[in-house]
Specification:
19% of the residues lie in helices and 29% in strands. It contains five helices and 17 strands. The strands form five sheets. Strands 8, 9, 10, 12, 13 and 14 form a six-stranded antiparallel beta sheet that branches. A three-stranded mixed beta sheet has the order 1-5-4, with no helix packed on it. A hairpin with a 4-residue loop joins strand 4 and strand 5. Helix 4 runs antiparallel to helix 5. The chain is globular. The protein starts with a helix and ends in a 7-residue tail after the last helix. About 7% of the residues have low confidence.
Length: 296
């Protein structure tokens, strides 16, 4: 009996020793990929990271750690970066300066959701920015085919600042497009102004932000002086008054705005964008722009 107890005791000692040593030398297996070889390939538009798979592949997991063996790849899309500049006649008339009036923002009338097709949203705090970088309104930007500008390749909503800069929905960053590095026509639309497009194609890439000013000269836009209105001080603005967004400022635009006189809020009939639909929208802007329209 004593001999049996001795054997049992020795077994316990061995087991405890193994457990203790296991805790000292145990390892944590992190997520990783095991492969015989691999490579990273990239160009100006994307990066491909991969390993060559083994003959036997498997995915092992214990619920907290995963071990992948075999083919692995990750594609990172590099985006075109664009920073356009435009001015709107309406809020420039209201401000009487070279900085657009931001009454829609200061009166809390700007929606956090874009009125354009993508219906993207921004944080309400974006509208807390004041001064030259205050947000004036939502705006719509398109990249068009270099060989046929009637072909729209990509579009998105952006935010227009008081000093003319168009930025992303964070209120700061440049616009980004998921298209290859190439040359494109740049077009800009607004909900109650006539659209404009760059006179020439613009080379866009992923490594740096490309800036284009569509307000500094009539030669900057397709159609020249017929596409913009001279606001003085070297600023050529998008023409206000296209209420129905058909590309033309007509008596029909005026007739609808007349019916909406007296309302307030975020309205396309508020041509000067001061938060009110008034006679000044018609007399100071609409009537003087009748007959003008988009040139592309």
């Amino acid at each position: 009996m004593e001999e049996d107890n001795t054997k049992i005791m020795k077994q316990y000692i061995v087991i405890l020793t193994l457990l203790f040593s296991g805790s000292l030398f145990s390892q944590t297996l992190e997520r990783s990929v095991i492969g015989s070889s691999g490579r990273t390939l990239s160009n100006t538009n994307a990066s491909l990271d991969f390993t060559v798979g083994e003959l036997v592949i498997a995915t092992l997991s214990n619920g907290t750690t995963t071990l992948n063996q075999g083919f692995h790849q990750e594609v990172i899309i590099l985006q075109l970066k664009l920073s356009p500049v435009v001015f709107l006649q309406g809020p420039l008339v209201t401000s009487g300066t070279v900085i657009m009036d931001d009454s829609l923002r200061s009166n809390g009338l700007l929606p956090a959701t874009s009125p354009y097709a993508d219906s993207v949203t921004c944080e309400a705090t974006v509208f807390d920015i004041t001064g030259n970088n205050a947000i004036i309104d939502w705006i719509w930007i398109s990249l068009r085919d270099k060989n046929d500008p009637t072909v729209v390749l990509a579009s998105q909503s952006g935010l227009l600042q008081a000093d003319g800069d168009i930025v992303s929905v964070d209120g700061i960053s440049a616009l980004e497009f998921d298209l290859p590095s190439d040359s494109y026509y740049i077009a800009v639309n607004h909900r109650n102004h006539v659209a404009v497009m760059s006179a020439n194609t613009v080379a866009l890439g992923t490594s740096t932000v490309t800036s284009i000013d569509l307000s500094d000269a009539t030669a900057s836009v397709f159609g020249g002086s017929n596409s913009v209105v001279d606001m003085g001080n070297g600023i050529f603005a998008m023409i206000a008054g296209d209420f129905d967004e058909n590309g033309q400022i007509q008596n029909t635009d005026t007739n609808v705005v007349i019916q909406l006189l007296g309302i307030s809020g975020y309205s396309k009939a508020d041509i000067d964008m001061n938060g009110q639909v008034q006679n000044s929208d018609i007399n100071s802007i609409l009537n003087t722009n009748i007959g003008k329209g988009v040139q592309f």
